[in-house]
Design goal:
There is one protein chain. With about 475 residues, the chain is an all-alpha fold. The protein folds into two domains: about 210 residues, no CATH class; about 220 residues, no CATH class. It contains 24 helices and no strands. Helix 1 runs parallel beside helix 8, helix 4 packs across helix 10 and helix 15 packs parallel to helix 20. The longest helix has about 55 residues. The two termini are about 30 Å apart.
Length: about 475
């Protein structure tokens, strides 16, 4: 539901703002998202690992110290970004090459420290099992407030500056909610202070560094593409790329959900030394991600020529090819399975850092070069190629780590079935050019058909018994 609300808000913004104005706003927003990811320094993930350990050991002072180190580092890095943009406006304008984007950035920049601290506190609450609070912020408060901002924008005739200010205030509201719940998460910090706070900075940052290097890949793939478009091509090409990025991310939804199911299972099997069972879970999880991701892939690739102009308007028709490439990029990660998470479970951080570092350098150069040659389409193609190189490299390490039997015959057969379904849908699209509603129905029907035909190889009851009991009888093997 939250995904639908956010997507509806995005569609309203794209259709309401002029294409150039949306491009300016997207350019500034992309820079802010780059900075907000960078200033986190991998600390939310690190805090989520160490807080439970300190709690288990009864090290309250060390736990509070880890929170202080993480929040302080993110806040200082975020404040430095704010001071740079506001204190050196001429330098910022020369770097961006756009006066409009610089003006919007001067408002949006406050999002950087706010969101950074938000995510650190979210990791803290996740460690304490405060799922309800996280759910309230992520899936109720933020989508609702963002949608309200967009409604005011459209109905009152405001522009990009209002939208930027509204999104900053929404992030501030989320931080207020998390701050109110921080006391319950930490218990009584004064008791910890009284017993002596330890600041485990070295331990925290030694783990955060490889995590942060992995995050840089995301910066290269999507943020660098947008920034390169803004610098080399202008706001309209930025808009052509950014408009279709949210629907392309639909193909990331299934892997994100399955990570929640996969990580605990894989960790338990690794701790017990059951490598063969871990191989089976890895393969079956990959099969599930492919099957469940098929409807979104079909809608955003085969039916992209009808999806884009219907949803975003005819002025974005040229973005259909951009959506196809970005959707394929996201889905490629599903094809390769949860390789990155598996290597983290196995403790092979050196390999992930090496692969991610290479992908970051390779992707940055490739995307900038392709943007110069082909604009938004080049940015999307560079993203797809970089993800393919990175995930293939991780898959090779997984195979070497887990041994033979990873992604065997069932995987090959499922890939063949997926290609056949996409070919049939493509023939229907070319012959009949169905409308968006029919395209959605055909994509959903294709997904159900694939799920039924592949139900024996998915082994849902063996992998996830709780989910298996909830499935309809016709989906059980």
């Amino acid at each position: 539901m939250a995904l639908a609300v956010d997507f509806a808000a995005h569609v309203l913004v794209v259709r309401y703002l002029l294409k150039e104005e949306f491009g300016v706003y997207s350019y500034a927003l992309a820079i802010v998202l780059l900075l907000s990811t960078a200033v986190q320094l991998g600390l939310p993930e690190t805090l989520a690992r160490y807080v439970p350990i300190y709690r288990e050991r009864g090290q309250r002072g060390r736990m509070v110290g880890a929170v202080i180190v993480s929040v302080g580092a993110v806040a200082v890095a975020g404040a430095a970004c704010v001071l740079f943009v506001l204190g050196l406006p001429d330098v910022t304008a020369s770097l961006l090459g756009s006066a409009g984007a610089t003006a919007v950035l001067a408002v949006l920049i406050f999002y950087v420290p706010l969101e950074g601290v938000n995510l650190v506190l979210q990791a803290l609450f996740a460690s304490f099992g405060r799922v309800r609070l996280i759910f309230l912020r992520q899936y109720v408060l933020l989508p609702g407030l963002r949608f309200a901002v967009v409604l005011v924008l459209v109905t009152q005739g405001y522009g990009a500056m209002f939208l930027a200010a509204g999104y900053v205030l929404v992030s501030a509201a989320g931080l207020l909610l998390y701050t109110a719940g921080a006391g319950a998460g930490l218990g009584h910090p004064r008791r910890a202070l009284g017993s002596g706070v330890e600041l485990p900075a070295r331990e925290i940052f030694s783990f955060a560094l490889p995590v942060f290097l992995g995050i840089l890949l995301i910066l290269a793939l999507f943020g660098v593409g947008t920034v390169a478009l803004g610098l080399l091509k202008g706001p309209e090409e930025v808009a052509a790329f950014e408009a279709v990025l949210p629907p392309a991310r639909l193909n990331q939804l299934v892997p994100s959900v399955f990570a929640v199911l996969y990580l605990p299972t894989a960790s338990r099997l690794f701790a017990r030394g059951l490598t063969s069972d871990l191989r089976n879970v890895y393969t079956a999880t990959t099969l599930w991600m492919i099957v469940l991701g098929l409807p979104g892939l079909a809608l955003t690739t085969v039916f992209a020529p009808v999806f884009v102009p219907t949803v975003f308007g005819e002025r974005y028709s040229s973005s259909s090819s951009v959506l196809i490439l970005l959707a394929a990029a996201y889905f490629f990660s599903s094809l390769m399975g949860p390789s990155n998470n598996t290597l983290k479970v196995l403790g092979r951080l050196r390999y992930t850092v090496t692969v991610d570092s290479f992908a970051f350098a390779f992707g940055s150069v490739l995307i900038v070069g392709l943007v110069s040659a082909a604009g938004a389409v080049g940015a999307a193609l560079g993203t797809l190629m970089t993800i393919a190189v990175r995930d293939l490299a991780l898959q090779m390490v997984v195979r070497r780590s887990l041994g033979g039997g990873v992604l065997g015959g069932d995987y090959i057969r499922l890939i063949g079935g997926t290609l056949l379904v996409l070919a049939i849908l493509t023939a229907i699209q070319l012959a009949f050019e169905p409308g968006l509603i029919v395209a959605v129905l055909l994509s959903g029907a294709a997904g159900i058909a694939m799920l039924v035909s592949a139900r024996r190889m998915l082994d849902v009851e063996g992998l996830f018994p709780e989910l298996g009991r909830a499935l309809p009888r016709f989906l059980r093997p």
